[in-house]
Structure formats: structure tokens, C-alpha cells
Write a structure and sequence with these properties.
alpha/beta; Rossmann fold; Alpha-Beta Plaits; Dihydrodipicolinate Reductase, domain 2; homodimer; 28% strand; 13 helices; eleven-stranded mixed sheet
């Protein structure tokens, strides 16, 4: 089989870039013998030309001018690993306009600019691939874009943030407080010194937006995705979940029903039998529900240099194959969607309320639920000296009614504090 | 976007074919709007033209001459759902020679004739896709063939037979005997009235062969895959596994090390923490280990009309896209491989031995292990009246030594019966 050389230009060379170059050096021959494509690293754009790098990196191909790479006639495929939107957006656009397929791991860029970039790629007849942008080494994008492109999908539920999954797993398994678990995550390098983007749910929201684009062909952006994080979750919440055979997970959920779409990020209690419940540590997993496929789960490493590089490499080979074949595979036209108003969303909820322990309190609290049309499925009281903690699981309730309930509960004189609200998913 | 019509010829219309036609009828417009391809069912070959069929099937396109479909100039893509090797092999070959991409769910055909059929497809420049042949709706083939084509894979471990997974899950969860669990599987339609192909491990062996072809580019056939089934596994084995925090699963394992490949099917005890342990009921799952990707698991429905049809549809759209783009994506050249001799394989084992309960027995039995160079990691004695059951977990042992040990144990006068041998996987 004759070998076709494909010359890569890599923008950015941090942990993932370094792992990618090492992986390609190692696998070049195997890839050539299996696909007929010889991947050649032509140029790498870096910030600091003087920095020490892995031995597999040939210093003579380093440049500090990424804009040269995206315009170079010597580069066939561009890999964007800079992150963020500036200068990434402009670089990706220029590469596409110059007819170069682009592989990117940039969730921020796609969650904000996905629809226009996919459109640009289609117009120019080149691939824009982004497996590594969502759940790292988990091949969700390819499965959604190709295997399930004809499937009537109902819902995609993902654990797509490894930091928060690590923290929640630690809390459940060791009884650690949120603060201790976060510190442990930072110590092990699973959380950044400023963990806000992860623990607030924003990182997961970026991924949820991209999932909704691909799964439902939805024209959507990060701004359309409401997100709630995990920093309010405390040991008592986790203990309650455990006792009731549930597990708390931070979920990115995109679902479609009756023509409208909901995309959200929130912590939720899942029954322990749900396959996502056993996803521990910093692993990622995505559960897909469709009318024909029934249910499908993909599980793996959501981050880390090597797994992410593996995902990038799969896309590089895919883009190279398409380039050689003179074809490309777009996401398809994204259509404007009707997003279900947050107010109209329905869910069962876990609600904890700290109250003064005296007669009549439960009746007072329960009446607030009743007045707001929220039906209580179970209630439990946990005494704590002069105080008590009431824990409610509601039946499916409307979000607007829920917020009204929480606000009215806060005004009751017998209520010391309204605690965390966590969605409850039954199946 | 202009729509390109792709005319399908479907060979065979049982449960999967029926579900496929229904799915296409339902999704035709969505697929067209997302991919630009309008899938038209041109002809369906059936055995019995008179049989009643789903309302979505237009009787005027039925024929009982599949050989006409694979030669018809009105058919662009062929879907083979007949199963078996005759007449499927000839039909698939003819379709390919006529330049028609083929999508098949036929594990038997591919496990026996895969290498020559893949070669024929490559020579004729058409796709031969087979997602549905292994683990039904689980998109393993696409992930291995595309996402992980550049990944240095070490091992693929699959639960790829739903019948046996259902039986083993029932035994573990309800304490049922093998016979009762099998009857329950038959009652629910998970097992056939003659369950041999499933419980013997042969069905899983077909899938293991296909996995090894795709994961390692191995030229291999079903005959190269030794298989052991589950019919010897009894309640005591399952109870021991449970007590020691392990789960018994029937595994299809393909692994590569030092240039040689092992492909086997056997029941194994996995630690409960292993993601495959929580795969219950008739679900399938495949765990992939690679040097960059670390570990990856795909989980879903391994059988059933709708999930299988969903997998076939993904392939139909893929083949159609490639046809329109004038390209195809082969498996790549399969190379002759060195199969590790069964005798040389290493594994830890669970071995149970029924003995007469009298002094000195353990020493006798243990000395047989020692003489054959098998080191014992743990031993437990379970009394049963005048008899006793000795349960051993060995350290990694050579298969030849193991077989010698088992045969010598059988000859000891204190040994009533040598029970099931089950591999033990630690990580």
C-alpha cells in the first residue's frame, strides 16, 4: 500500500501537545501500515522557544508564530491546542478558510462559537473535529456524530468534569467534607488552585452545549446553559444519598421532548443501580438514551495529557483520511431550537431544611410545599439537639414552584436555613 | 442542502430487518436534513412472501430472490441480515464485486471469512461495515476502527453475550442454580431453546475473533479462538466469588504483548471494583485498555431488534456518506499473527476440589500444586459433612502446568471431584 504523507501543524504544546507528539513518534509506522497515511509533524507553535521539551520534539520545527502555520502551504492539517477564544478563534478560522481541516480540543471556543465555526467548515468543505473537547478520551463525539446520527435520541446525561467527580466520590467514600475533598483534589493535581470553573459547573456547561449541538443539531451556546455547581453540597447531603441508595453526581444533561430542548448542568442524586453511579474517581462517563438504541454508556478518562492526545490522534487520522479521500464530514446544519424555559422544567428534588425542633414545625413547612403545588414523596427528620434537619424528596415539580417554595420556606420563623437543593433522577 | 438518494437492498427481514425498516421510515426526514442523504428502501429479500409483516413494510418491494438484489443496478447499498455463511457469503461477495457497499450484522460470516471479505472489499474500493455483528448496539467497531486506530492497544475485554450475562447475573443476585437461571432466560426470550451456542462460549468466540481482527489487525478466524463456557459453573462458585468481592463474567479477551496475541473466551472472576463487574442483566460491555487512552468502556444493548437496527442504520449512513464522497474506509491489511500457544498462557485461577474430610488431605492436594510449580495465593476449606470443599486461588500460573495439576488432582484417592476452573483477573 502506498503511503500518503500528511503534514501536521500543531498550535500550542503543553501537556496534551507534548503527549501527542510522543504518541505520533511512537505510532507513526503502525498508523502508516494500517491506514496508508504517514503523519509528519511539520511545525509546532509554542509560546516560549527556549523552554525545555520532551526528547521527541525536534526543536528545529518550533515557531512562535502560530499565524504562519495556519497559512503555510506545507501544512495539511492543523491541530489547535492553545485553548480559549483569542487568538484561537482567528487561527482556526484562517486555517479553515485556507482549506485546512482543523482538530481541536478547545471546549470554550466551540461552546461559544461552535455554530459559526461548523458552518464555516462546511462552507469551505473541510473537517472541524473536536473529540477531545468533551470528556477527553471518551469517544462520545464520534459516536454521536456517526454511529447515532440516525438515532432518535431522547437524552444525553454526562459526568463530564473529572474534578467534581473526584470530589463527590471522595466525599461519598471517605466521608470527607467538601473542603477537604477539594484540597485532596488540588494536592493530586485533579483541581486547579482556582477551582471555580470546575466546581461552579461552568466547565461542564461548555461541554453540555457542545453535546446538545451534536446530539440534537441544536444551535445553542454556552450562554443558553444554566448551571449549578457542587460547592453547596455538604456531608449531610451525601450521607442522606448514601443511606437512601443514591449517589450524588454533577451531571450535564441535554434532553429533547416534544420539539423543545433542555440543556442544564446540576448536581443530582441517581439510584445506585444507574450505571453512572459507579463512575468513580476522576473518570468521565456519558449515558445516552435513544428510542432504538435503548441505553448506551461510554466511560473513560476525561482529561490528562495522554488520553486527550489519543482522542486528538483519532481525529487527526480521521481528518487525514477524509482529506486524502477528498471528502469531509460536517456536523450538519444546526437549527435554531426552542429551549424549554427553566421555569417550566420538571424534576423531583431533594430539599433539606434546618428548623427549630418544636411541635408544629413540620406542619408549617409541609403547608408551604402544598400551597405551591409540590407534592412530597418522602420526609425524614434528623434531630440535631435543639435543632432538626428535615429532608424532603418531592415528586416531579415545576421549577418555578420550587423556587417559590424555597423562598417562602426561608421566610418561616421556624426555619433556620434552607439547605442544598439537589435534583433526584429515578431511572 | 440538496439531498442525495441512496437506495437500500435488504437481505433478510426478521426481527432486526423489521426494526430497521421501521426506524428508517420514522427517521428518513431527520437523516436527510442532518446528512443530506435520503435513504430509500428499494428492495427486501425474504424467505416467505406470504408472511404478515409490519405496516411500514411495502409489500410491493419484497422479493424472494436475494441474488437479484446484490446485482441490481437500482440498489446502491446492501444490508445483509440473513446470518450464517450460506448463501450469505456468496451474496456479500457478489454485492462487493458489483461495487456495492455492504452492511452486515453477521458475526458467523465475519469470524470465519473476515480476512478474505475485508480484502475483497478493499480491492473493490467499497465499504464492508459490521457494527451490529459484535455487541449489537454498542458502537465498539467504529471506536476501534476509527477513534483508536492510532492507539497502542494492550487488551480488549468484552462481555459480548447477553444470554450468559443474564444467567450469571441471575445466579449472583437471586442465588438461582445454573439450570434455573437458564430456564428463566429461556422464559424471557434471552436464551434459545437450544442454548448451546451461547452457554458454550462459541458465540462469544466469534465476536472475540472479530474484535482481534479490528483491534490488532490480526489475521485470525473463529478456529483460532479457544473457548470455555459457563455450564460447569455452580452456585458454590458464584457464592465464593460474592464472598470474596468478585463477580463471575463470561469474557471475550483479545490481548497483545511482545508481538504475540492471545484471543480467548472464558469465565473469569473480576474484582467488584472493575467496571465490567457492574454490567448486569443481558447488557453487553467492552473494556478497552491502551497505552495512551488508559481505559475505556462501552456499555449497552448487545442484542434485540431495535438496538441492532440502530447499529445497522449508523453503518448504512456511514457507507452512504462514503459512497457519495467517492471513498471507503477499509479495516486495513490484516497481518498473519503469532498466536500465543494456549499452553504458554499465564493466569491466576480459582480451583475448587471436593475431597474426603480427613487429616492430611490438604497436604496431599497442596503438594500437587507445588510439584507443578503452581503457587497458591489463598486456600479456604468449606466443610460439607463427611466431605469438604477446598477452594484455591493461585498466583499467575502457566496453562500447561495447570492442566497437569488438574489431571493429577483427579487421580488422588482423597479427591472426590475436581470442580470448575475459573480464571481470576486482578485489575
Amino acid at each position: 500500500m502506498g503511503k500518503t504523507p500528511i503534514r501536521l501543524g500543531i498550535l500550542g504544546c503543553g501537556v496534551v501537545g507534548d503527549a501527542l507528539v510522543a504518541l505520533i513518534s511512537d505510532q507513526q509506522e503502525v498508523i502508516a501500515s494500517r491506514t496508508g497515511i504517514e503523519i509528519i509533524i511539520e511545525a509546532i507553535a509554542v509560546n516560549d522557544l527556549e523552554k525545555n521539551r520532551g526528547e521527541w520534539i525536534d526543536r528545529s520545527i518550533l515557531t512562535d508564530k502560530p499565524e504562519d502555520i495556519v497559512s503555510s502551504s506545507k501544512v495539511d492539517v492543523v491541530v489547535e491546542l492553545i485553548g480559549g477564544t483569542s487568538p484561537s478563534k482567528k487561527l482556526v478560522e484562517t486555517a479553515i478558510k485556507n482549506g485546512k481541516p482543523v482538530v481541536t480540543a478547545n471546549k470554550e471556543l466551540l461552546s461559544k462559537e461552535g455554530p459559526s465555526l461548523f458552518n464555516l467548515a462546511d462552507t469551505n468543505g473541510v473537517d472541524l473535529l473536536f473529540e477531545a473537547a468533551v470528556a477527553g478520551g471518551v469517544p462520545l463525539m464520534r459516536v454521536l456524530r456517526e454511529s447515532l446520527i440516525g438515532e432518535p435520541l431522547d437524552r444525553v446525561i454526562g459526568i463530564v468534569n473529572g474534578t467534581t467527580n473526584f470530589i463527590l466520590s471522595q466525599m461519598a467514600e471517605t466521608g470527607a467534607t467538601y473542603e477537604d475533598a477539594l484540597m485532596e483534589a488540588q494536592r493530586l493535581g485533579f483541581a486547579e488552585s482556582d477551582p471555580t470553573a470546575d466546581v461552579s459547573g461552568q466547565d461542564a456547561a461548555s461541554k453540555a452545549a457542545i453535546i446538545a449541538m451534536v446530539a440534537f443539531g441544536a444551535q445553542i451556546s454556552l450562554n443558553d446553559v444554566p448551571y449549578q455547581g457542587i460547592s453547596e453540597i455538604n456531608s449531610a447531603d451525601i450521607a442522606f444519598a448514601k443511606k437512601s441508595n443514591r449517589t450524588v453526581k454533577l451531571l450535564a444533561v441535554a434532553e429533547q421532548s416534544n420539539g423543545s430542548i433542555e440543556v442544564n448542568v446540576y448536581p443530582a442524586m441517581l439510584p445506585n443501580e444507574h450505571p453512572l453511579s459507579s463512575v468513580r474517581d476522576s473518570y468521565n462517563a456519558v449515558f445516552v438514551e435513544g428510542q432504538a438504541i435503548d441505553s448506551l454508556m461510554l466511560y473513560g478518562r476525561g482529561a490528562g495529557g495522554k488520553p486527550t492526545a489519543s482522542a486528538v490522534l483519532g481525529d487527526v487520522i480521521g481528518a487525514s483520511n477524509n482529506l486524502v479521500g477528498g471528502t469531509c464530514r460536517g456536523v450538519g446544519e444546526l437549527r435554531p431550537i426552542e429551549l424549554k424555559e427553566m421555569d417550566e422544567q420538571q424534576s423531583a428534588y431533594y430539599i433539606s431544611v434546618q428548623v427549630i425542633d418544636e411541635p408544629g414545625v413540620l406542619a408549617n413547612v409541609a403547608s408551604v410545599f402544598g400551597e405551591n403545588n409540590i407534592s412530597i414523596r418522602s420526609m425524614e427528620q434528623e434531630g440535631m439537639g435543639g435543632e432538626a434537619r428535615l429532608v424532603f424528596i418531592t415528586h416531579a415539580a415545576n421549577e418555578r414552584n420550587l423556587r417559590q417554595t424555597l423562598s417562602q420556606l426561608g421566610q418561616l420563623s421556624c426555619v433556620e436555613k434552607v439547605g442544598t437543593t439537589i435534583r433526584v433522577i429515578e431511572t
